[in-house]
Amino acid sequence: MYTQTIFELSQEAERLLQLALRHLETVNGLPGNVTSSAETQYAQPGSAHALGTQQGTLNNELRKITRLEMVLAIVGTMKAGKSTTINAIVGTEVLPNRNRPMTALPTLIRHTPGQKEPGLNFIHVKPIERLMHELQDKLRHVDRAKLALRLEMDKDMNALLERIIGGVAFEKHYLGAQPIFQCLKSLNDLVRLSRAIDVDFPFADYAAFEHIPVIEVEFVHLAGLGENAGQLTLLDTPGPNEAGQPHLQKMLNEQLSRASAILAVMDYTQLKSISDQEVRQAIAAVSKSVPLYALVNKFDQKDRNSDDEDQVRAMISGTLMKGFITPGQIFPVSSMWGYLANRARHELNSNGKLPNYQEQRWVQDFAEAALGRRWRTADLDDVTHIRHAADLLWEDSLFEKPINMLLHAAHANASLFALRSASHKLLNYAQNARDFLDFRLQGLTVAAGQLQDNIVRLEEDMAQFEVRQRVVSEEINHEVEQAMDAAGAFIAGQQQEILTLIDSRFSHDNLQAMSLAHGADLRWSQQDDSGALILEDEEQANRLLSIIRSDCESTAFTCQQNIIRELSLRFGQLETSLSRTLDDALKPIEAHVKEELHRAGFRTRVTLPVFQSGSLQITLPQWFNGAVATEDLPVGSLRGGMRETVSRWLNNPNWGWDDYVLTKTRYIIDVNAIKARIVESVSTFCAQILKALALQVDVSVTAGMVTFFAEFSQSLSGLQKNLQESLALRQQHQSTVNTLCQQLTQCLATVRWIEEDARLLRDDIQTLFAAEQR
């Protein structure tokens, strides 16, 4: 790559970052400024609060630039398979898997050539030590039995309790997979324990990248590729609201905003769930300045009725992510298959064989995935066969494509990713600082009386906003209630239609017609009073059942798709309607605020936030398991033939024959039992979809409205605060005002230089990226 050019660009980025940090320090020192005060969740761009959040981000970018480090943040819900995905990307097991949240603290996994055995560095351990001392004091007065009612007391938690009571501290360095697993599990259990006994976990002490745990290990897929100018690091992030910890949403947003790129791990089986939506919203908040990629995990669970790769990419890109990501940056995969294949191939290359499957559970998982459920112990001893099976499993995992297109590219261009991240963060800072300083300078040129009038009018607008908020909430609740009533009636009608169609499918004539339509003139010996079909041949029974299954599943799938499509359309229209209701109610306030401020000489950004609701996720039930029963019947006595002849020869008509019973197997398809299962499943399905719909609409609309109103209210409050601060400054002695005007003008000039140079830096980096892709 262009080593000298990269060096020069990194020097320029470092200069601009240091200049921006000095500039921020100057802005913080201006009279009446509060940019270093507490952050707020809904900071208005250009406000003091928004500017105050920038210092940590700029320092983090400066640290990354000095190392030319590209940080790829891995984000996903608890059950999406983040840890398994990271293990598959790295090529060996560096993160433990447990059926509970496993990322209470963000963790860095850094590619370190030559580091075959993973090592964990946890230098900033002091806050954890203070926490353990506090927990030690608390535990002396806690009833273990009562604690067990609030906390799952497994062996790991019991070991942690003994460790705390015994005063055993965390180490700063751990070498090897098992010590690392134990350390990370203990950290996560500390979060659960702290919450259970009302002790604050020191999350704020781990906001900066240099303070969080770091695992150093050579990524198997990057071994032998040589060193580049930059360094690739993965960031394992906490999912939003994992383990009922709402503060994790704030931590997630902070970590994502500081990453060089984002890799979203999405659960193929839960693509439209509420928890998955929360992750998408967190990603969307930073996607304009951070490159975005997605792995759609658990794609091995796809069946013949599921969306294929192209359909999944199109749905995520166009519908779920609303254009924030292109289809070419979305990769359906099976992380578990990729991890198992990697692990098996690593063991074969290192040791020439797999470990004992009775000692290491993953070997059993690999054997079942690669060889099938009926694998034999002897199969594991055939190294050539196992190596081939591992290669095929890796191929089936679909991980080769993202490894080549994402991991290798990220490694080769890590320095460019780090530079691009720095340029975007610099531009973001410069634009926020310019808006803030410009607003503050304008406030000093407006008469005090005019400022007071603006504050009074804005307070009137805020009061009007509260009134309209109540009215709009009632209107929206009424619209949602009507939509749910209509959806209930529609689902009930669809349920009856499905049952009528299924019932018609099981008539004797229709079953025969289906057989002929599939090219099989299947005949059954009889149909008893219960409606069961009785066949003499097993192959014929299975063929007929396959035809019935195919027809019923096709009918149910078509009806289900109609339900999903219709409900998605209805609630897509509802979302549009609700957005229009909100806009119609609040646009006049927005326009009035802008008009008043513009008349007073202010240029400001007051915009309505975007309202979004949730989606649906439905799965088909299984109806045909064990649908063919066998029955052994005694064959009736045969008259004549060899038996009678032999008996007559021996002058003993019943000689020995009654001791032996001849039997014949027949195969029974209990049609009524299948119909009963389908009826029950359809009824359950319709009840569940209505319940899930009600829950998701309630959560989405409620959460959407709360966020919408909170963001707009915060915008108005931020404007009010800026005006009040401007008034306070304007009322000072004129000489003080003149001095401050000069300082603001100088700060504005500096930040415009930073913005211009940062834009040039970004353009140069984009040119290099384009050259690398050719």
From TrEMBL:
- Domain Dynamin-type G, which positions? 66-404
Q: Name one Pfam family in it.
A: Dynamin_N
Mitochondrion as UniProt keyword: no
Q: Known PROSITE patterns for this protein?
A: G_DYNAMIN_2
Entry coiled-coil feature ranges: 441-468
Which Gene3D superfamilies does this one have? P-loop containing nucleotide triphosphate hydrolases
SUPFAM superfamilies given in the database record: P-loop containing nucleoside triphosphate hydrolases
Question: Which UniProt keyword terms apply here?
Answer: Coiled coil
Q: What is this protein called?
A: Clamp-binding protein CrfC
Organism per entry:
Scandinavium lactucae
Lineage of the species this protein comes from: Bacteria, Pseudomonadati, Pseudomonadota, Gammaproteobacteria, Enterobacterales
- Gene name, Swiss-Prot/TrEMBL: crfC
